Amino acid sequence: MVQKLRWGIIGCAQIATGSVMPAIMNSDSGVITAVASRGLEKSSAVAAEFGIEKAYGSYEELLADKEIDAVYVPLPNHLHREWVIRAAEAGKHVLCEKPIALNSAEAAEMVKACNDAGVHLAEAYMYRHHPRIAELQDIIASGEIGELRSIRGTFTYNDATDTSNIRFKSAWGGGSLYDVGCYPLSAARLLFGTEPEAVTVHAKFSPEHDNVDMMASGLVEFPNGLSLIFDCGMWAYNRQLLEILGTEGRIEVPMPFNARDEDAEFFVYTGDEVRRVDATGANPYIRQVDDFAAAVFTGKRLIAPEDPVLSMRLVETCLASAKQRQRISMV
Q1: 98 is a catalytic site residue
Q2: What is the pLDDT of residues 167-202, one digit of tens each?
Q3: Is 117 in the same domain as 200?
């Protein structure tokens, strides 16, 4: 019999009901035992929709449930630290939505709390779990595009008319760098396999959106002359792209962060040739759930325990650079 991780869902955000909860239910490794909201009416409705046995009207009640092994935290960014730490203290493994915290100090507290409690903590960058990532890394390692030189990443969408959106609340960790800029930032760290040395970021801060960064673009300097050039936004035309440039070629990934089964292709350019690669398709949310369970049951981790701290250090430095209008060294 396959061992199943028993999940509790802390909050009923759209990312939970639309992506992660269906992924757990369709995974080989997990089952949803309970869902909690700030009010029983909402959690009961979600539980009925998904056929979940238990619904709680508070997060505390869910954490007290001894039949739950792990929790998923899709709460607004400013609540991540509190509920990850409380979950760890309750002995629960934690999958927390990205960005994991408001800054690297909070992330370090969360990592320490989970380490001290002996529970697994993961930041929910689902795209990392898509099999295409390993295929990209294999091509880079093969030398087909030569030595790496730079990465260009973009992730923008336009939701500016919805001024009540929690992504537009500054104190809650709103803004494009937190919401979508973190994707190309994390992808560059992952594909370069090293940490940045300095950042220079320019942003559009909007008074009508609580002064969050609605658009940002920047340069992230990595060792040995490597660089990430990126832009992100919540007030621009919808688009995604990741371009990996080498001395002998380049890789273009049209849908780098949301790909599933049918849109996982990418293109390798070398000389005058263009090679389309139909990467292995998968639901990255299901892969994320299964990889999380594997880390809990076998100790096999896909991402290093300290990664969330390093990830938040880069995001916070980018935001500081945009606010200060200057280059900031990270070494």
Answers
A1: yes
A2: 999 999 999 999 999 999 999 999 999 999 999 999
A3: no
Instruction: Please determine, for residue 2, whether its predicted confidence score (pLDDT) is greater than 80.
Output: no
Residue in 54, 66, 98, 204 annotated catalytic: 98
For position 78, which CATH number holds?
A: 3.40.50.720
DSSP H helices, the chain, are 14-15, 21-26, 40-50, 59-63, 80-89, 104-117, 131-142, 176, 182-192, 284-298, 307-324
Write the CA distances from 74 to 124, 145, 171, 253, integer angstroms.
9, 38, 17, 27
**CA 273 from centre of chain:** 33
Q: Which of 158, 156, 180, 328 is nearest to 240 (CA)?
A: 156
- Residues 89-94 have a mean pLDDT of 98
If asked whether residues 158 and 249 sit together in one domain, one would say yes
Local confidence band at 1 (pLDDT 50, 70, 90 cut-offs):
low
